[in-house]
Amino acid sequence: MLNVPFKKVHGSRNDFLLIDHKDLPSSFTYQQKQQLTVLLCDRENGIGADGILFVSVGGRTDGVMQIFNSDGSEASMCGNGLRCAGRYILEKTGKDQVIVETLKADLYVKKYHETKTDIPFYQVEISPVLFEPTSLPMKSNLEKVVNEKLDYLSHELTFTAVAVPNPHLISIVTKEILLSEEQGRIAKYVNGENPYFPDGVNVSFVYPIKAGEVFVNTYERGVGFTNACGTAMSASSLVTILQGLHQFEKPLVVYNNGGYVQTIVHNQNGKQWIDLIGNGTYSFDGNVEVDMEKALMTNLEKTYHYDEEELQYQQMEKKAKDVILSVFGKEQI
Hints:
With 333 residues, the chain is α+β, with helices and mostly antiparallel strands. 23% of the residues lie in helices and 39% in strands. One of its GO terms (cellular component) is cytosol.
């Protein structure tokens, strides 16, 4: 039996298990990580989570984050996960800012001190920003897809395709679309067998609430509709600006089903990147025993609960739900 210590963490209720590589056997393989992720993330028979953050402290950078979605697929990046992993690495190193190695880029994370709440907030870099369809990948005859109609998806909506670096397809929509089944139809089509997105794609629907505020609902590739997706909220912020609904270098509040974050989109010297600012909350520490050969999980033990953190986040979440209720007539989309 393999004993696995972990932390249950979340960014905007996008929840993960955080596992330190040092607590796994040195011989633990990529395939075993996939198997462990599917087993532990199962919300009915496992612990339940959107994915696992495998984190190492030290190395070429201050630390490494490798993320697997609940279906066992590896994600190139995750903004909500990076805030949680970054917090862990910051605490382990005692530094004010760290560089974290991810699958496709080395990204900075730092504690955010300007928040008006006691909740631990973290600022993370989301980059690079790529518009070439091949970067998603997406099959298209266009050099880039920005505010374009894609008739195979909808005769009414327009879409923007961007990788940051994981792939996103984004549409600015009306309240009626956001409350309809159209979201699920589109998202499931591009994440099933189709000739346009061979690897699937994250799909976000963005509703502008008022100046400086938007709501984003995201279908994550390999997960489904989630409370929040950090890179999706970042990419959606960029698309909001490209549509003339906000400005570069100005903070944007992004509401989601799990709370809210703040983003700042930068555009300097022909380069674009996004600062994603939000919580990196610890829920509880635990241990679990796993039989990898039989794919069985036993003896789940929760060893420490971060009750004060959770209470603080619930209060923040309530404020977000009040806003969503006032706009859509319901607390969750």
